[in-house]
Amino acid sequence: GGGGGEDESPGGLRLHSELLQDYLQCPGGGAAAAAKGVPGSAYHGGGPDAVFRPTAAAAEAVTTAIRLRDMSSHINRLHRNETEKYIMKHASHYQKEQITETIQTASIAIIIPMTSKGTEMTSVKESPFWFNTFQTFCYSIDWAANRNKFTFFIGFDKGDPIYDLGDSWNDFRKEFKSNAGMGISWQTGMSPEKVTNILETQLAVELHDFGDLAGAPSQVVNRLAGLAYDAGFDYIYQINDDTEIETKQWHLKFMKALASNPVFPNFGVTGPTDSLNPKIFTHAFVHRTHIEAIGSFFPSTFKNWWSDDWISTVYGEKHTFRHADVQITHNVEAQKTSGWNRYDIDYSAQYFLEKEIRQGFVTLNRFLRGRGAPGLPLPDVCGFSPAVGDLVAHRHQAEVLAARAQGEEEAGRAEYQENLARLGLVVAPPPGGGGDSDSGGGGDDDIGGGLGIDFEIGGHVVGAAVK
User: Fold this and answer.
1) Residue by residue, what is the 3-state secondary structure of the chain?
2) Which segments show compositional bias classed as Gly residues (predicted)?
């Protein structure tokens, strides 16, 4: 950025960006960094990451940045055009009546990792699950009209002193049936026969224990999600035993958002707004398509924290469906002896978050492209796609491209194509001359001189210049 001046708002600073041709604003100490596993109510901005720190930029660096910005804009414009044409062509596939009928009979797996560690529980009956999650769940569903089937997949540590000891599983099933019956009866006033029918056809519980996942609730989620997928469930919802559901008929909103995705039905992620951390999905709701695309609910890298950040980011803006009108909260101190957490936080996983998001982008992009749908738009930051910078500005990649241009192409071409493929870009042979896709000359797609990179998006050859 360059220049600057006082903003009219108190305490504000306004900086002009030559790259964006606009002003940037920072509200000062009130700004908070993006949540990276940190509860929103416990984090307040004001540190070094919450203020501008200008550094001098050479003219050549500014020129390169502008070229990368223009290249990013060009690629994203082509992607938008491709996506719009695809949606128009396939619009008949997304009839509201068909979507409504499909979601009203879908099966939903609710997966919850649970432990008695760090709680004041002395029996299954005292589990925070009953008076937080399960009670509010029972009240949130219109059982008189419901046609969906809900199954709770509960995962414990093998040998848990309360949940996995003696006859505790039978005790859990009895409590489940008793609490469900009371909740449905109080909400609906149904006869015992009708309540029994609901319990037999629309509501169930499965219990599982794991001997190798202590302190790794995110990986318990992975195992439970895999079991739900193998059992044929349509949708999977990941929550906690201290969750309080505040919005009725939440499941219909979630399913409709995913099923109505015009690019690929049921592709993406949705979830509620958490009153304690509204920046990310602390609870994620996906279709079984997510497991088919990624291979698991979360990457195996994450034991506990940062899995929420990953799933809140990996699908990008176009396929992440946030619901401000669906609210949940956490009774974070329910039955806990101290603090919010009942496990040791794996802080090391934060260093792999960006890598996993990038890998997830490539995997999801390949999934869409393999089914004839437009890929994910490149992640965008103020008009610049960092992936473009990775492709163009990385010194080693530039050397490979230079080697190709000088005729030493056999050694460098395979790696060049592999780098492009990692971004989900289809390599196209360089054009023979000028025209719209000429990276060194004029035309609508001209983005400057220098070494040309050519690749294809939606049938269009994109010319990119590396100085």
Assistant:
1) CEEEEECCCCCCEEEEECCCCEEEEECHHHCCCCCCCCCHHHCCCCCHHHCCCCCCCCHHHHHHHHHHHHHHHHHHHHHHHHHHHHHHHCHHHCCHHHHHHHHHCCEEEEEEECCCCCECCCCHHHCHHHHHHHHHHHHHCCCCCCCCEEEEEEEEECCCCCCCCCCHHHHHHHHHHHHHHHHHHHHHCCCHHHHHHHHHHCEEEEEEEECCCCCCHHHHHHHHHHHHHHCCCCEEEECCCCEEECCCCHHHHHHHHHHCCCCCCCCCEEEEEECCCCCCCCCEEEEHHHHHHHCCCCCCCCCCCCHHHHHHHCCCHHHEEEEEEEEEEECCCCCECCCCCCCCCCHHHHHHHHHHHHHHHHHHHHHHHHCCCCCCCCCCECCECHHHHHHHHCHHHHHHHHHHHCCCHHHHHHHHHHHHHHCCCEECCCCCCCCCCCCCCCCCCCCCCCEEEEEEECCEEEEEEEC
2) 433-446
